[in-house]
Amino acid sequence: MEDKIKKKYCPMTETTFYTLLALLSPNHGYGIMKFVLELTDERVRMGTGTLYTMLGRLVEDQMIQVMSEEDGKKTYQITELGETLLNMEQERIKKQCENGERILGDHNEKN
Amino acid sequence: MKKTKLFLSILKERDWLESMARQGYMLEDITFGINYKFKEVEPVEKVFEIERFSLSSSGDASKQELTARKTAFDIATQTGWEVITHDESMNYYFAKDRAGDETDELYEDVESRQVRADRFRRTYTLETPQMLLSLLLIVAVIYIALFFIIGNKPGELVVWMGIFIGLTVIEVGISFFQMKAGELMYKELMLSREEWEQRKKYGVKKSFKKVADLKAFLQEQDEKGLAYKGNVDGYMLFEESTIHYRYYADTLTALKKRLKKSGKSFKKETKDWENNSTLWHEQSMDEAQKLGLNVVCSVESGTIIYRRDAGLPEVIWDNDAIKTGSGDITAKLYTTFGPILIIAFIVGFVLGFMSQMG
Questions:
Q1: Residue A78 Cα distances to A10, A21, A58, A89, B79, angstroms
Q2: Residue B154 has pLDDT above 60, yes or no
Q3: What is the torsional sign of CA B123, B128, B130, B135?
Q4: Residue-wise DSSP of B251-315
Q5: Radius of gyration of chain A (CA)
Q6: Global pTM?
Q7: Is there a contact between B85 and B35 (Cβ–Cβ < 8 Å)?
Q8: B99: phi > 0 → left, psi -120 to 50 → alpha, else beta; which?
Q9: N or C: lower Cβ tally within 10 Å for chain B?
């Protein structure tokens, strides 16, 4: 894997993570936004411009690809590279969570 | 209904289009970037956004840039935005019904906002040798044409030289002006709607003759419950605050006076030719910290503004500073303008002397 891609997506932003999650199955723009909104109880709300800028970037970095197009509406899906990086990020988040729970947990218990 | 208007500010243009819609005029078309055509509709609350989808003048484009417009249309139309029209600079105008919540904001993160802002800015920078070459080519054609028109008469050489210089100045001026416009667009497009509203409400553009005037203005604002945040993009920014402050100022001239009184002198750094060093600021801040004053910012790099909770007793410190001209003209005269004037005088003298000889 290119070092450049690794540096760019490890760690990845929250919106990137959730977009990739939404694209494990084929989805289109509005579908992605709705998926993320419902999954996060409306906490992560992606702006229209943020989403289309991100989709362009993810396609260029080959993290996702266009599966089909109908009347100008594109359907995207995650690529193998995207899935690999998504799994790497999940592992990283898990470890980060464990670190926090232990150290912050100890600190909170004492105080 | 047609209207012709020139906007240097994208955000002000956006505000105007939104207010026109509110009055019952919906944007229909734009030509030459300044001729607006409206259609009469029922007054409606719309939000407008402007995006640029144009290739950079170098012609190089990544896949992301090539697919940007189509992807934007795709996603925007799915989320309620309508593509109204575009102008000759490939600025696309989007509009949607105002929802009154976060969905009115096209970009909610700084990173993608910067991508859009860059698309605007890079159209105005002289990016490649190609651009520079085409600029010079136009200049050369004009000069050759003028040469043939005016002819080969030596007496009119002076006129020819004058036009030569005049045109060059105008061309450089236009390029400079365009780059400034591009910079302004960039800075504006980095603001969220909320930040723009804040700036319109609390941002102030003002200049002051004396530091005392600046201080008085800050206290005035403080009485209105507005605390000074600092200067950004030429605006003085304020924010609502329940805490009241007393403001203080310091200048290099005042610092030197204080040091003189205690028998010391200010040692300027010899490598600091352009007065970019923060040396005197650091000394000023050291003193201020001991007095319990907090730094706010520096204005025109000639005046540092401090403040302290108004509940604490007043500090007698800046009586010299407030007498200086805003931006500390006195210090600038000796350190920046003075040397430049002297050098200009010497150069002029030498040139004049040489022309007498030859």
A1: 17, 8, 9, 15, 22
A2: no
A3: positive
A4: EHHHHHHHHHHTT------TT-TTS---HHHHHHHHHHHHTTPEEEEEETTTEEEEEEETTSPP-
A5: 16
A6: 0.80
A7: no
A8: alpha
A9: C
Angle at B351 between CA B349 and CA B355, to 5 degrees: 120
Tally C-beta pairs within 8 A across A and B.
79
Residue B127 is encoded by which pair of tokens?
A: 């990016």
Q: Which 3 state secondary structure label does DSSP give A36?
A: helix
CA distance A56 to A29: 12
Per-residue tokens: B212: 């005392």
* Token pair of B343 as six digits: 């050098």
**SS3 category, B82:** strand
Closest CA of chain A from B95, distance in Å: 13
**What pLDDT, in 10s, does the model give residues B200-225?**
999 898 888 888 999 999 999 999 99
* CB spacing of A59 vs B109 below 8 angstroms: no
Q: Look at the block and give the residue holding tokens 């899935």.
A: A83
